[in-house]
Amino acid sequence: MKRVLIVGSGGHAKVAADIVLEMGHVVAGFLDDDPDRKGAKVLGFPVLGEISEWAQHEADAVALGVGANTARHRIMLDHPSIPWLTLIHPRATVSRFAQIGEGSMLAFGSCVGPDAVIGRGVIINTCASVDHDCRIHDFAHVAVGATLAGTVTVEEGALVGAGCSTRPGVTIGAWAAVGAGAAIVRDIPAGVTAVGVPARWPKGPYGYS
Ligand SMILES: CC(C)(COP(=O)(O)OP(=O)(O)OC[C@H]1O[C@@H](n2cnc3c(N)ncnc32)[C@H](O)[C@@H]1OP(=O)(O)O)[C@@H](O)C(=O)NCCC(=O)NCCS
Question: Is pLDDT above 80 for 206?
Fold first, then answer.
């Protein structure tokens, strides 16, 4: 059993706290760089102070509870000495042949198939499914209820929105955002926002690709 500090104090931090408790650990409190959050209570646990103060608290581990991909990226780069705890809900289903990176979260009901590789600081959210041979790169987020077929690549920092589904083998480019409910049937370029069934994204002044 570990005493765990959670970075962040919003909705995603609540999900992280829930997983920490379900894993049999103890929540030591939350850390947030917003000074207005200090002293607040989240799920009955205190917001203790800034992230840089992590070593001053009585704790054995630190977990990421931040939903925004850019923010997780910045926090992990800004704090290279933090040994990030990987959060795996006991009711996530994870193949013994999958690899899960440091500081990533597999939430309640998520599924990760054989030979899937999950990078660092990734979120596989509630009931999301990542099938065999997928590659989910650092700081990406496969949102609530999204379904990735086998051999899908989600590049660094990309968001696959809630309830999306994909064709096998597609690539979602780095830091792209795919809107909730989209059907991803071909590769999505880096950096675009894509929505719809099938997913489309702005091509320029003359319409959508
Ligand atoms: C796609 C998305 C990123 C766009 O956000 P935004 O830039 O703030 O967009 P807006 O809400 O201003 O909407 C812009 C237009 O896109 C449409 N739109 C927004 N989201 C859409 C979606 N998921 N599917 C289809 N159309 C969408 C809006 O209806 C609006 O259309 P209009 O201009 O004809 O009125 C966002 O809506 C989304 O779906 N994010 C994913 C959220 C998610 O799943 N988070 C993870 C939770 S675990």
Answer: no
